Amino acid sequence: METKIFNMNGTENGSITLNDEIFAVVAHPQNINDIVKSQLNNERLGTVNTLTRSEVNGNVKKMFKQKGTGRARQGDIKSPLHIGGGIAFGPKSKTYDQRPPKKAVDKAIKGVLSILAKEGDVRVIEGLDFASGKTKDVSKFMEALKLDKALLVVPAISESTKRAVANYKGVKVVTPLNVNVVDLLKYGKVAINVEAVKPLQEALVK
After folding, report:
1. 52 pLDDT exceeds 80?
2. What is the mean pLDDT of residues 140-151?
């Protein structure tokens, strides 16, 4: 498919042919859903941890004798029945990591990119870089391209570009190898540096 190339000020500056195997494929909702869930699960820390009665501090001496006190029978102070005792059936730390096949991940990325391209939400930008490192230049760029949110794809992230977008809500900058489904869906619009188009296509088409 062919799309326009824009300057940083929003004016057209030629066109470029994008690979149909990436930007014009049929999206599979179930595949996209699976990859989104796996990526979100991988972000979970799973560090929650409660102590059982065998792990809390305290002795295991019986609190008082079994009979003759008129009170309900009790065991030791570490019983889950007491304040400061162990937690019965509480959550324990675990890993939520999921590793879907790379082919499935690439298929989902291509599906989302195709949806965005069809809706006109993929822009190819010439010289996408913020050498000044100033957030106001990012704001001017977003206004010129009429974007409220965007995922910026560049060949390499310079320190000035990283600094410029750091305080701009709704903008994230990534390299072609770090493009992922969650970011594409979250930001909804993609601005690709013209020099990043080839590396992106090479990463997704083997």
Report:
1. yes
2. 92
